[in-house]
Input
Amino acid sequence: MTDIDKSRLAGFYRQLQRQAQDGGYFLNPDSGFAMELAESLLINQNRYGYQACPCRLADGERELDQDIICPCDYRDEDLGEYGACYCALYVSKEVAERKKQAGSIPERRPPDPADRAKRKPVPSAPGTGLSGLAYPVWRCRVCGYLAARDTPPGVCPVCHAEKDRFELFMPGGNTR
Amino acid sequence: MADKKVFLYALSTCIWCRRTKELLTALGVDYDFVFVDTLQGAEKEKAVAEMARHNPSRSFPTVLINGTVIVGFQEARIRELLQK
Ligand code: SF4
Output
């Protein structure tokens, strides 16, 4: 269906695999499926100049598509809640080990660009100090890695300790 | 099944849209579709606006089966609606 060069695709797929592994992420264990998505990412790279999410309609302007450049802003939340990102290129450990199956999941990205902007972290208001954090900060008890997001990472990208080794370091966002 | 009217809003790069097309083909359904990402300008805007009336979240695939809207690749739901 495309003119994506086979060796370029193979190299890109290996790169995705390596990056996922290094960061404590997992690609879909169905390599044919993951390869189709990798190819679509390269198609979008050619088309838009950046790797827009294959399963979402890109605007074509980088600024407006910022949140859906792969890996998108919604990946980790979807991994935590559904065990797969929206396209299912990235999956949870359970899905990677075929204990669970990834399927089509609801879209989390707000359709209105104004609502997308609201999702972005806001700096704490002057004088409120750390209590005004937009996101809670999680600390890996093993290596000290800090992550400011709603939930701790599935696996620590630095030392690969699992999710339950994270502790709440600074409250913010929902945990306030 | 020829009496069922099926239309699909899809993206050419979307794997769940591809799975939906494959399912419709496997079920032997006659369907029309549009790859919204391959349209330009006014045509693209028109397709998105039209789709948004059925699916305000503007996500793909959006399938219309005799006026029933199915959002995402929902195999069981599609089978159910088409095999009735
Ligand atoms: S949903 Fe998955 S494949 Fe799509 S952009 Fe996000 S991380 Fe990448």
Notes: Chain B has a mean pLDDT of 94. The helical segments of chain B are 15-26, 41-54, 75-83.
